[in-house]
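Async update (no meeting this week)

Hi team, since we skipped the sync, here's where things stand on the single-chain job. The sequence we agreed to prioritize is pasted below, unchanged from the tracker. I ran it this morning and attached the output directly underneath so nobody has to dig for it. Comments welcome in thread, and please keep replies under the output.
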Amino acid sequence: MSAKKINRPRNTAKIEFVERKSVFIGFSTFVENEEQALEIIKQKKKEYSDATHNVYAYVIGDTIARYSDDNEPQGTAGMPVLNSIRMSGITDVLVVVTRYYGGILLGAGGLVRAYSAAASMALDAGGTKVYEEYSVYNLKISYSDYGKINTELSNVDAIIDNTEFADDVSIDFAIRADISESFEKRIIDLFAGRVVPCFKGIRIDTK
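Output:
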């Protein structure tokens, strides 16, 4: 099983262009949850309170996708922005496209192209950072086994979060989720059941 790759925005970005006298401002940023997305949307509407429209779309994880046309004709604004996000393959992202109307009607096709372009340009400007799913563990070992377990953790490129030295050694670490099952089995077999990694959950991380 290969590791699950997750593409997230690398940076917050803002772009601007003019289409037939209408000014389009594209903004993209990472969001952790829907509450954060809605708060940023609220801030953008306040920042551009004099704009004609503040259109948005966001995608969070594999299940949440929302958009708003903000009084543009249905299907000409929010959906094109959402489609641009989906085509980019980026998740956990919010895109807001602000429009200042310039007095020339763009028509349905023109609006779709302009909002799509603004969203795509903002996403491109922000860049992408690739993350993976990691399994988080704690394990407790004797001092005599510490060197051996360090070698095993190094072999799987584990991320060591914390190490505590007391009566024994306690290590908090994370490894790629796609190799976690085989790693658990190897550790249990290698130490004849004396050492059993304690699974704590899944997180999204990058080396």
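Quick observations from my side:
The CA atoms of residues 69 and 78 lie 4 Å apart.
The mean pLDDT is 94.
Reply here if anything looks off.
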